[in-house]
Amino acid sequence: QTKTGIALLYDEVSENAYDIRLKLTKEVLTIQKQDVICVSGSDHSANHRTVTLRRQPVGGLGLSIKGGAEHKVPVVISKIFKDQAAEQTGMLFIGDAIKQVNGINVESATHEEVVHLLRNAGDEVTITVQYLREAPSFLKLPLGSPGPSSDHSSGTSSPLFDSGLHLNGNSTNTAPSSPSSPTANEPKYEKRWLDTLSVPLSMARISRYKTGTDKLRSNAFEVLALDGVSTGILQFYTAQESADWLRAMSTNISDLTLQNMKMANKCCSPSDQVIHMGWVNERLEGADSSQLYKFKFLALKGSSFYIFSTPPVSTLDWVRAEKIYNLCEVLFKIHKLWLGDDCWLQANLYLGIHQDFDLEDQRPYCFSVMVGHGKSHYFNVELGSELAVWEKSFQRAIFLEVQRTGSKTYMCSWQGDTLCFTVDFALGFTCFDSKTKNVLWRFKFSQLKGSSDDGKTRVKLLFQNLDTKQIETKELEFQDLTAVLHCIHSFIAAKVASVDPVFIDSQSIARKYMYTN
Fold first, then answer.
1. Do domains 3-37+193-250 and 48-137 have the same CATH topology?
2. What is the CATH number that goes with domain 3-37+193-250?
3. pLDDT tens sequence for the chain (517 residues)
4. CATH class of residue range 48-137
5. What residues does each domain of the chain span?
6. 113 Cβ partners below 8 Å, 6+ apart?
7. Which residue intervals are annotated with compositional bias (Low complexity) in the record (predicted)?
8. How far is CA 263 from each of CA 7, 176, 456, rounded to the nearest angstrom?
């Protein structure tokens, strides 16, 4: 199904916005601009048209104009009156910029100068026009067909108001002149929406933020193709229109990403499937108060979590990731949701988890992925629905990896002894001597009652003895304590999910709050 609609294309340099038409299909977003084309009678370019108007006793030239050099825009035809001279030529259109009047160049003329020329040009006025494809929106030119005649000429002309030239000018001929009409040999012109840019949506990304800032655009966003081609800033008339188009484009991009995943998975073994992938914004490390973010492409595939600067399009690209982490050793956290106009939900308030990030920035839909050695990546997505998908996908990818792996063993030490610590999906926790392989202790997941660590290398695990009901403390020292703690978390969560999937779903912060709002 194709979605179409009118929007504005905002030019950040000139700060002007231009009327455009958007056409959205499943695979492509097309931007169209209006132009006048020759449809019959001639094959020459419609860029410049020279038209002779015969001034009529009633109705004059039958058009109104806007603009002028003092406003850094050409003088353009803003109205064409039904059944009057301009309309009868069949060669003039609303949005035509006037280049010449009776051979006099008016491209640098003011509004008043052009009005004066047209009103005093005699009974026959020859004008040369060119359709202005990028007419600034402040001219407020109607996009549709010429409307009914209206009489609103005033004594003083303003560049932002129409000067009516449908009244009589200074005519020397008092007899009625015959109406202008195109002859059989004259070319026929039409104003049409023409494709000017097509942006493929496969692996495309959307940004609602002003480049290099943390400021959200008002009812506007930009779509960037995989090759970097941009639509420019698409501005919408209402918040509802902006939200509808954002959702529609995001849905199509997601559907195409799903197709790409299915294609990629045909070449991968069952244990190395892509679970989810897509664009996010990553907050740069050490970013100052401007809170700079950079586009990153994330993927959950097989046993790994990948971070790319550009999407992987071939099998070889997977080894070119900026970062690759084992899924058992990462921890996914939602940090911020946007619920309403003035209401932030910070997930840590509900979960009671330690907050590593300041929440000064104004971006909603934030999550972090904590990795080994206490490091973290902080991400933001454009829509709440995307946040919910990432939460569920991380959960699923981690659970699958835990079940595939079965167990993970880490080297550790305590009081000078080199030990091995194993987390096993079926057996729970086992600690054994690395040399003799003698088991020192073993506990089920359900026996773990608490833990504490020094934030560096040491951890205390508190287990309940099934016979005595007493708490036994086991202390261990690891080279990368964070990775081990994340692994324990992953295995326990996967164990709970295997026993009670409904409980895990009920813990979903994003889905719970996004879908009820």
1. no
2. 2.30.29.30
3. 899 999 999 988 878 888 999 999 999 999 999 888 887 766 555 578 899 999 888 888 999 999 898 888 899 999 999 989 998 888 899 989 999 999 999 999 999 999 999 988 888 999 999 988 887 777 777 765 333 333 333 334 444 556 666 544 444 443 333 444 445 566 788 888 999 999 999 999 999 988 777 788 889 999 999 998 999 999 999 999 999 999 999 999 999 999 999 998 998 899 999 999 999 999 887 655 456 889 999 999 999 999 999 999 888 899 999 999 999 999 999 876 554 433 344 443 333 333 444 444 567 889 999 999 989 999 999 888 899 999 999 999 999 999 999 999 999 999 889 999 999 999 999 999 999 999 999 999 999 999 999 989 999 999 999 999 999 999 999 999 999 999 999 999 999 988 887 766 666 655 554 444 3
4. mainly beta
5. 3-37+193-250, 48-137, 268-348+362-398, 406-507
6. 68, 106
7. 143-160, 170-185
8. 35, 73, 43
Fold held by 406-507: PH-domain like (2.30.29)
| The amino acid at 232 | G
As a whole number of angstroms, the distance between CA 22 and CA 130 comes to 23
- The CATH number of 268-348+362-398 is 2.30.29.30
On whether the CB atoms of residues 319 and 304 are closer than 8 A, the answer is no
How far apart CA 380 and CA 278 sit, in angstroms, is 12
Give the predicted TM-score (pTM) of the model. 0.79
